[in-house]
Amino acid sequence: MQPVTIYSSQLCGYCHAAKRLLNSKGVSFDEIDVVMSPDKRQEMMQRANGRHTVPQIFIGDTHVGGYDDLAALERGGKLDLLLAD
Predict the structure, then answer these.
(1) What is the CATH number of domain 1-60?
(2) Phi and psi at residue 65, in whole multiples of 5°?
């Protein structure tokens, strides 16, 4: 399974929704809180092509985007394929 990284903040409802979706699938992930580690926000923005909102989700080296993007992959049956690569 590909490693999953989520850049998030504790007060973000979309971040919690993304983590719930991944947890429901039994997917483990590394979470980076950009509020607690502000230097990681710059890292996130570089990896996410300038996107500055959270969550920003990465599966392996693939930038998925935010929660809506993750949920769309799940609805389209593509999330499991991306996780398996």
Answers:
(1) 3.40.30.10
(2) 115, -140
Q: What pTM did the predictor assign?
A: 0.94
Give the number of other CB atoms < 10 A from CB of residue 13.
8
pLDDT truncated to tens, each residue of the chain (85 aa)?
Answer: 899 999 999 999 999 999 999 999 999 999 999 999 989 999 999 999 999 999 999 999 999 999 999 999 999 999 999 999 7
CA–CA separation, 72 vs 78, rounded Å? 8
CA dist 73 and 85 (Å) reads: 14
Tell me the three state secondary structure of residue 1: coil
- Dihedral sign from CA coordinates of 77, 80, 83, 84: negative
